[in-house]
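Journal club prep — side note

Before the paper discussion, L.F. wants everyone to see what a predicted structure for a comparable chain looks like in token form. Sequence:
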Amino acid sequence: MKISVITACFNNEATIADTVRSVLEQDHDDVEYIIVDGASTDGTMKVIDEFHSRITKIISEKDNGIYFALNKGIKLASGDVIAFLHADDVYANAHILSRVNRIFSEKKVSSVYGDLVYVERNDLQKTIRRWISCEYYDGIFRKGWMPPHPSFFLTKKCYDEFGMFNTEFRTAADYELMLRMLHRNKISTAYIHEVLVKMRAGGMSNKTVKNRIRANREDRRAWKVNGLNPGFFTLTRKPLSKILQFFRKG
């Protein structure tokens, strides 16, 4: 099974090499790697060029943000399964894609997801927050649940059938997409109770209280555009669940 990994980047000179290496070091034998750069003005492309011969496709041009870039990558992808590894993130080890491939093959599902840890920006070995998920069941989104998007692997067929990222969203297009796929369209999924991705702390939607409020509004709109009504406490429990991640031991 071919897995297409898409990395969207913009001015990530300090971290992009770690991301690229973690993809190129994967032991799965059928990986398509696509990098979509938003016309970086720092040394990002110079770093990427050092790996040029081992990257399937590289694009560097202006775009309108990360979700536009990810959609561009989806259109270019030829894999059976699509994954996203952002320019601040790395896979937890060299066996992640082969593990994911095995679950897709064994379970015959349309999606697979796992766990994620947040690490210090300058120390990938220092975990500061754990996003430990759980087995999916119908209705769990109403309890404020969502899988960590960087650990969410989805078949190309699902993107073709149910659509790509809704670029009207600034920070919650990943939430809207997974809500649309899992909750609205009831695609099949399987959970790997392992850390698949390490994410550097400091994501855009959580940097400030203002950004968190905006993200919560977008979460509400994600339900509305899908013709769905969240539970009374759904959009309160979602951010509160993130607080608990700081106290998880594994």
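L.F.'s comment for the group: The mean pLDDT is 91. Keep this in mind when we get to the figures.
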